[in-house]
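Q: Entry one of two.
A:
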Amino acid sequence: MTASDISKMIGKSEEAVQAMVKKLEEAKVLVHYTALVDWSKVDDDQRVTAMIDVKVTPKRGVGFHETAERIYRFKEVSSVYLMSGAYDLSVTVEGKSMNEIARFVSEKLSVLEEVVSTTTHFQLKKYKHDGRIFEEKQIDNRIVVSP
């Protein structure tokens, strides 16, 4: 989104928006910019994404933080969240295949002393991510036939 787009949305000048963005970057409020890629449109891409529910035994004095830090340092991990509910950490990983992710879970994640159990969910299709819709509704031009 450009400064011009934002200025129209909030009713401020483009220069004011640019100054605001610079101030937010300096204050580390805006910490990273990224491109959002629709990998389904890349012909040779075989990327696999999985969300892993992790139950953890918290450590005295540090809680879940130390375990979360150990997990987010693995190169396969793209995000880690502390959750409420049935499990403690939600870990998103990416790999070249389901086998690669399975090896990550069995050889790196599950063997951590604090990890009690894991449940892995493989992403089958992405419909919406970061507010962006990936698949627009297709118009069905077929004729309705009923018995």
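Q: Entry two of two.
A:
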Amino acid sequence: MNWLQSQDRLAIHEHKQGLMARAVDQLRGVNGLTLHGTALDKGPVLAFSLQGAHPHDIAQILDRHGVAIRAGHHCAQPLMSHLGVSATARASFALYNTAEEVDAFVAALSKARLMLS
């Protein structure tokens, strides 16, 4: 906690938002991909669905490429009902993540899309 409290919170926020923006920019053109929650200054959590693919299948494929995401209803079943989906996949970006890891996530997701379409 002492280490985290000694860090520049604005720099941490900007880093995480930069990673999020990088991911969203790269994912905008992916056919069949729906990004859930697109507020301009939202937290660095990216929930998404890929047409014709179950989120758990996406998570397993990304895991094989060294990318960890979450899949499921995320204890938010009313939201899933509102979105019209049974589950979503979710990537989160933190202080320790890098731009290269975002790129690896996008590349792995592109491979998953090809495998599952």
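A: Comment on entry two: Helices lie at 2-5, 9-27, 55-64, 77-83, 99-116. The mean pLDDT is 94.
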